[in-house]
Amino acid sequence: MEKTHVAIVGMGTVGSGVARLLLDHGDRLARHAGRVLWLNKALVRDLSKDRGISGLPAGVLTDNLQEILENPQIQVVAHLIGGIEPARTIMLKLLESGKDVVTANKALLAQHGEELFDRARSLGRTIAFEASVGGGIPIIANITQCFTANQIISLRGILNGTSNFILTQMSEKGLDYNRALEIAQNMGYAEADPAMDVDGSDAAQKLAILAHLAFGVRIDWKDIQRHGLEAFTIEDIRYAEKLGYRIRLLATAQLIDDNLELHVSPTLIRNGRPLAEVRGPYNAITIVGDAVGDMFFHGQGAGQMPTASAVVADMIDTAAGRTDITFRRLQLWSDRQCEIELTPYARTLGRYYMRYLVADEPGVLSQITGILGNYRISISSIIQHEPAESSDPSKVPLIIMTHVCTEADASKAHEAIGQLSSVDSRCFKLRVSEG
Amino acid sequence: MEKTHVAIVGMGTVGSGVARLLLDHGDRLARHAGRVLWLNKALVRDLSKDRGISGLPAGVLTDNLQEILENPQIQVVAHLIGGIEPARTIMLKLLESGKDVVTANKALLAQHGEELFDRARSLGRTIAFEASVGGGIPIIANITQCFTANQIISLRGILNGTSNFILTQMSEKGLDYNRALEIAQNMGYAEADPAMDVDGSDAAQKLAILAHLAFGVRIDWKDIQRHGLEAFTIEDIRYAEKLGYRIRLLATAQLIDDNLELHVSPTLIRNGRPLAEVRGPYNAITIVGDAVGDMFFHGQGAGQMPTASAVVADMIDTAAGRTDITFRRLQLWSDRQCEIELTPYARTLGRYYMRYLVADEPGVLSQITGILGNYRISISSIIQHEPAESSDPSKVPLIIMTHVCTEADASKAHEAIGQLSSVDSRCFKLRVSEG
């Protein structure tokens, strides 16, 4: 059987997983690829470190990128280093030396996708990136191959497993944010610096890639409005539960008449809806296509072997020749005209959950509902409890769920309410998923 | 842009949907295929029938298959006629005249797959069949492309939308089977003759295809043990609910140490598990791979446009060249050696739900539990209610949930219990999903 020589650049968690699949399950992979995927080189920073991979033939590990770039036998390279530099420079060098690349680095694609894809196209090379979004969930292949008869209408996903794990810990174990984060870090679900995961940036980078693929819109991920776990507290989780909802960090792309809404926000989702039931470090995505209807995917969004599974599937597709066919037709960082426009965030429509701490005195509710009325926001439900014994008895929590209104009106009303002298300055506003 | 001429054979529900996508959304499809899919001919039985498709150019409709077979321009044909003959003969003729075929006919593949795939391979042609299982859910592509780095360990699915719709009507609206079937027929979810849908045959045909793809085992679908909706009544649905379960018609393929269990059975699934939450005419599939972990898909398993979406995606893949690469490496009706053996049904392991109507007299429970004990079946829970006022007061329902045992032991014990003089002859035994 013919051999395709492959290499791995970066032998961290995912890289080691890819090496294990290549070494331990070569027969299985060869059957699907129609050729042997032969691990020729694996680039590491420190040659002396033990990676716990049995069966790694002598001479495979190297700390010299040139050994991969200058080896004409190597055709496919799994590029598994995180961050922007030197990841970007290395990917460019790989493409320029004639390698097809498979990557899991969504931050790099979100930031430099245009440059990298342009270079790959002009060199006749390919970049495959299934592992960059949704871990083991094959969302890229499904959008680019399986749903090609459809205009995608909406795409809503829980794309960050770290924040979903933290959210589940908070709601199911009653932990506060800091304690839940600590557990996520101890269990390896959160980085030492979890900022990008919990502030919505990681999900926004993934959403930018998916939205670009599915709708052709090109957007800098930094321009996607995003809120993270800072936007609410465990009290909001409890009130949401009383109302029959769960809070999830939701990435949304929604097409309405050639206008596309994009945002990442903690969102109340009604219990029982598939996205509300996603627990722990899992990811899930709902896609609606105009022909296929609604489709739901759920699986492990990160972790060594699920991500390695996606990387190796891409390596097989690349070796077998499918990636070449798909890559040339992607609506991703191409110069294809796009007729879809982005809806300014202020004009997006939604329902809202608002929580205030208000003085327990006459007239307050009338002031608040008056402000909402001025912005023509109608109220779908309202909860005002007596103060808990332990808390300040002169302040009571007030929760309002609105009907559909614009983000601009919701924000202005919310701000005006927060400025009332009878309302505490610490107040919260979250999106509510319709349906 | 280059054109690929395509044809449709069979302009029923799905065929008309495919024509609509080709005619109304040609630009979209061309973008993904890299070429225009040009509808050259559509074969119908009755030329005079109005199909309500606007924009069908003159001369496209024909009632003469030869016009397709003898037209060398036509490269890809959507073969959308049901049943075995003349569907089989027509597919062979299409392959022999040099056409690549896309089909939704799982009954034909399940019955004559070997002959058809052999012929296609020897002629250098391809057969794509995404629409044959799971309707709009791209389960074939996911198994054959996205999870190729994995050994699939298990595959469990609700593969028949008709029976799931009936089940949901029964459990949510309290209807009996006949009334629920009537509604399914009125809503177009069930055929005039629903036998294959409700007796598990349709699901067994789909399971045979999936098991063959995922595990390489070649099995005649008729050899897959299957039970359908006849195996229980609305009372079982109610008792299952009391125990915290729902009943679903589940197709199961489970690999244990190179031995594969295959069966289709009404199964109790714990509330909250994804498969228990599948309602109405939807399909859903859980796949476990040794690298990717567990993955869940949910979507419309039938219907005009979801099925047409899958057919057209296959036509795009075929025109673009991906199908050719994939088809040559499929573990489906190939002469590849398979090391996996099928577990005889009697040796499969499971938990069981058993329901009896027993005489309300001393000693009966001891007799029954004695029989279970003789077969070393231990009981996980037991319910015995007082008789309902309306029913025969001398008989009481008894429900037993067992721990894991073999199908053989469960069947023998169940039969022995049913033969006790104090037990009514009408008694029920269903599988219970573990976990």
Short description:
With 435 residues, the first copy, chain A, is α/β, with parallel strands linked by helices. Chain A folds into three domains: 154 residues, Rossmann fold, CATH 3.40.50.720; 162 residues, Dihydrodipicolinate Reductase, domain 2; 86 residues, ACT domain (Alpha-Beta Plaits).
Integer average pLDDT of chain A: 93
Q: Indicate the CATH class of the largest domain in chain A.
A: Alpha Beta
Q: Say what the CATH topology of the largest domain in chain A is.
A: Dihydrodipicolinate Reductase, domain 2
Examine the secondary-structure arrangement and name the CATH architecture of the largest domain in chain A. 2-Layer Sandwich
Helix-and-strand structural type of chain A: alpha/beta
Describe the oligomeric state of these chains in a short phrase: homodimer
Strand segment count of chain A: 18
Q: What is the radius of gyration of chain A computed over CA atoms, rounded to a whole number of angstroms?
A: 24 Å
Cα shape of chain A: elongated
In helices, the fraction of residues of chain A equals: 25-40%
What count of domains describes the coordinates of chain A? 3
The stretches of 5 or more residues of chain A where confidence is low (pLDDT under 50) are: none
Biggest interface, which chains?
A-B, 57 and 57 residues
Main sheet of chain A, how many strands, which sense, barrel?
12 strands, mixed
Give the end-to-end Cα distance of chain A, rounded to a whole number of Å. 53 Å
Number of helices of chain A: 15
CATH H level, superfamily name of the largest domain in chain A: Dihydrodipicolinate Reductase, domain 2
Question: What percentage of amino acids of chain A are in beta strands?
Answer: 25-35%
